[in-house]
């Protein structure tokens, strides 16, 4: 009887652990992706994700040395976006980090929408 109970408990635990995991809405998903690399020539790859992060990179052999140039954008926990441009080659890894200032433009309102037809007529004296 103890072996049967142990088997039943093990089967229930296995079934619970095998259940599909729910997606977290905070997890980022890939929106766009490009990968142009055949293992021999120069390469290029990039991606954009749903959380606003993105990355692009190109590379290859230049004058007998590996050279990679790229950029990535990420958002800090505080919400500030940053852009990192980098070059990695025979001289090492050089990068430059800059904050991205996001400009919020007010919606454009057509002038004709601001005045009713009667108001327009009153302006021209009718």
Automatic annotation (TrEMBL):
PROSITE patterns membership: CHIT_BIND_RR_2
UniProt keyword list: Cuticle, Pyrrolidone carboxylic acid, Signal
Cellular component, GO annotation: chitin-based extracellular matrix
Designated name of the protein: Flexible cuticle protein 12
Source species, domain of life: Eukaryota
Range of residues in the leader sequence: 1-18
A molecular function GO annotation: structural constituent of chitin-based larval cuticle
Keyword Signal annotated: yes
Keyword Signal in annotation: yes
Lineage, opening ranks: Eukaryota, Metazoa, Ecdysozoa, Arthropoda, Hexapoda
InterPro entries: Cuticle_Struct_Prot, Insect_cuticle
